[in-house]
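Is 2-OXO-4-methylpentanoic acid placement plausible here? Inputs below.
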Amino acid sequence: MKINIKRISKSNIESLDFDNIPFGKAFSDHMFVADYKDGEWQNFEIMPYSRMSMSPATMVFHYGQAIFEGMKASIDAEGNPLMFRVDEHAERINISAIRMGMPAFPKDVFKEAIRSLLCLDKDWIPKNEGSALYLRPFMIATDEYIGVKPSETYKLIIFTCPVGPYYTEPVKLITAEKYIRASKGGVGFAKAAGNYAGTLQPMKEAKAKGYDQIMWMSEDFKYIQECGTMNLFFIINGKVITPSTKDGTILKGITRDSFIQILKNKGYEVEERLLSIDEVVEASKNGTLEDVFGAGTAAVVAPVSEIRYKDLDIIIPPTDTRSISIMLKKELNGIRNGSIKDPFGWIEMIDKQEVASLEA
Ligand code: COI
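Reply from A.M.:
I modeled the complex. Tokens:
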């Protein structure tokens, strides 16, 4: 496999204020592009980050064959780029692809593309606490055709952006009562663009009522699913509980899985199971609801301050009392930036020699 590299003539990095990085609005110098045609992935290329031109008939605009990943890279104290759980992201994009009738992308090229991007754009990896380089691989259907069928051509693109925290304040959730995000047999587990599109109008309505996110529920509105931007964890009477992903309605979050592994490694029990809103209401009433937080690549740990359910405000205890989620955030950020030893084999380091072989 050969990735052809066209370097940017002048870096755009001076435009970035590393002490004030907005989430998802600043983009690094290079991007990776690959084409699927004639039944195989080809034309592997890294080029300057740039706009793309497409025909109005391009299928992704009409039937939504579009999937993506979100992953993070950091830099250690010696200046080596670190990739976090890149194998799992490479696997998950293919799980999403298959569900959406799209072709799997070769894992070795995916990893190689990311390694090369990190070498070329190493200086874009933020060093500040809580910041990282966010990588956004995505795949879209590119046939110019408006009949409904799976496209025969696709593009996979990976671009990167330095980011600070996704949420800067604890989030207020409102429980879904009218809309659902996903049901059994659907595409809830896939990182499909349409999963996000369907939540935008309900989100507008939630925002108008003063809430940041919707807590999505099962079709009967009894069981908690996720938040759309993150999975959810609850701590009730010392027990860590997170909704099970078994029925395929919830994204199998890689941060979610990382927290489960960190917790189990430290001797905590984690219950992955059906969790009803009634159980959360009951725990709040009897004083055993200790913590609620979101977990996601972008969000890392997002403390939840309150949950609206019907006419009830469930108030979660103050964030400084939440020792478990404070620990999880510290551990995960530490493993990611190399300041805490990684006992799980999640980190892949890119050494100086490899960086030097590609640096602009
Ligand atoms: C992520 O956490 O990577 C996501 O894809 C969520 C998105 C809202 C930024």
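Short version: The chain is about 25% helix and 30% strand.
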